Amino acid sequence: MVSKRIKYARAHLTPRRHISILARPIWRRSYLSPDSNCLPRPFSVCRAALRARPSKRIKMMAQPKSVQRRFDRAASQSRLSLQYPRAHRGSLLLETRNRLFDLALPKKSALMHARRLARNRGTLANINSLLRGVRESRYQKYRIICEALQRRAAAREALSEPGDWEKHNRVLERLAAPKRRPPKPPRPTAARLVHRCLPFTASERILELAKPAVRPPGLQTDLKEDAFSVPPLALKAKCRPRIKILARPKTRGRRAKA
To answer: Does the keyword Repeat apply (predicted)?
Structure first.
């Protein structure tokens, strides 16, 4: 519901007077120091702003970044003729070509959709004029001619003779047949020897490497005479502190004390 204060303001005060009253700061919420932006009359301008003179920096900042040069006949005969040179006569007499008009026309499908949704007579008249321009444009005529040529070519290439139907059926059979994949090459057998290896003679180095290693039993081989015997070097060895640390089992977590 509208409060009584607003009803009274609407009935007795003008909108300008009401806005000026609402623009006054509330003394309970105002700051200790007066704010220069809070004016008793919001539509009034202070004397300092009227008498102020802009500095050079403000004048420089007020200038536009770029001035768009335009041809003006009145200014061309005055002192501004040097700053704004006169335009070429050909550019003044330039007329838009029909090709640009044809390229600027929207698509026919978009116009047809807009025509269905249009409810105003003026909008319908504008859409009808654009459709008339699309129909009369040379690009639309060229498109119609191309479509007619395509229809004639399709009718010319139609299957009219019985030999054409046989050729067409053969093409369909060839396309419907499954693809033939070539057979995989045969893998070479493991027992087969290459003929080049038969006349090969091994060298002394290869014969030496081909012989098995001969080591005394019981020291470096697994074929020991006594399986429970320990080598003397292992009995004399001393464990390092690093190995002792690594030999301890890992503790994933400590159990809680009961």
So the answer is: yes
